[in-house]
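Limitations
The structure tokens in this dataset are predictions for the assembled complex, not deposited experimental models. Users should treat interface geometry with appropriate caution, especially where small molecules or nucleic acid strands are included. An illustrative entry is reproduced here so readers can see what is and is not provided.
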Amino acid sequence: MNDTPLFKVSGVSKFYGQRIGCKDVSFDLWPGEVLAIVGESGSGKTTLLNCLSTRLMPTAGSVEYRMRDGQFRDLYHMSEAERRFLMRTDWGFVHQNPADGLRMTVSAGANVGERLMAIGDRHYGNIRATATDWLSRVEISTDRIDDQPRAFSGGMRQRLQIARNLVTGPRLVFMDEPTGGLDVSVQARLLDLVRGLVNDLGLSAIVVTHDLAVARLLSHRMMVMKDGYVIEQGLTDRVLDDPREPYTQLLVSSILQV
Amino acid sequence: MATPLVVSEVFKSFTMHLRDGLKLAVVNDVNFSVASGECVVLGGPSGIGKSSILKMLYGNYAVDAGQILVAHRDRIVDVAAVDPRTVLDVRRHTMGYVSQFLRTVPRVSAIDVVAEPLLARGVDAGEARDKAAALLAGLNLPRELWNLPPATFSGGEQQRVNIARGFITDHRILLLDEPTASLDAANRKVVVSMIAAKKAEGVAMLGIFHDEEVREAVADRILDVSAFSPRKAVAA
Ligand SMILES: Nc1ncnc2c1ncn2[C@@H]1O[C@H](COP(=O)(O)OP(=O)(O)OP(=O)(O)O)[C@@H](O)[C@H]1O
Ligand SMILES: [Mg+2]
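Predicted assembly:
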């Protein structure tokens, strides 16, 4: 087992005026570990995810990230340019709505290639070859490479968004309800794909979902949020099979079977 | 003989918050150990807490108090107290578990379900699949099924996939929750001989077997869980 965390979160809180977005969240994330954040809508999951990924500045707390050189850096004290560079290279962010993470009016190939160009790849042939490879890895027929995502189904768009995020070989991926807007049958395929990729690439991931079946399938560990607080956390199958807190028991009992 | 599993003063109850906080005491003061090469069978009536004990050992249920000490890599780990990451490492390297029902993952074929624990330990894919194939063949799972996801398999077929998956690694500890419950006589015999082989390799096993014949054949010792039951007066 690797003995250094990748990501260290301590005391992160976000207030919207008087209202609590999330309160006093602390945890470590290890290389290769997938953490699910679950809870009902309004419980603070997305606020927390946005704070962790620096898309939002928290009111208090710190997040340290272990850079490729092994040094920990405090994310909230980096320059904007450094943070953007991290986002483009070492991290991925998969949005619930693919339109938020894709450029809808450029081709599928360009959507994937753009992230490579952002990290300095300039060789057109290489970029196109890598883009083609990634489209097939996410099960998009490679003859669609010149089509715009506008012409894709919801499931295809979401798979394209995933390819766009993973092409740079990130070490950490944030996902906000990655299967949220999809039909059940499309969800299963996407989940299976994400599970395979996360395993094969040894990625660390933080996945926000209200769907406990998604948490069961994808995550090693989970945190349950309610009213901005983390009320229970632990090994995913322990939390789901032996929930301790009243709210977690309510969540688990509200679904048929996970 | 080495003793890779020691359970000490373990208590377990469930508090049902949706039922006005009803507290259901399951087991009190559980103490036992399992030695290498030994198969201990948990006995006692339905609902007495046998499966709950296995689930606590596997880290799937939390404990109220007590220790679950496991010889893991070169140290002793208390499964009841360590972080999730360590529990997962214990599952990957030290402790296997055959549950009564297979939890299927969409789109993954039976043979890959079986090979997966080896792949997780870095074994080469070809070698893992060969070993999976040998186990499935030994358990008489029809070859046409190997490349299908087990979701549509019969109860007994799923159980055999589950057994193959549990037996494929060389884990030092194996937990078995009624692994033969939906098998026919011929396949029960296969499982009995697989357990004997594990014993010979020095694996410490803890199991639940309702079938008397199987129990007789595999048990070195029967541990009556009623002895730990806070409700034992009623249960008896
Ligand atoms: N997750 C859970 N939440 C609440 N109660 C539970 C849970 N799991 C088990 N129990 C209760 O704990 C008690 C022991 O159950 P357990 O499954 O361990 O029994 P068992 O001895 O394995 O029975 P059987 O022989 O029927 O399989 C039962 O009263 C059961 O209802
Ligand atoms: Mg049982």
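Some entries come with short summary sentences. For this one: The longest helix of chain B spans residues 185-200.
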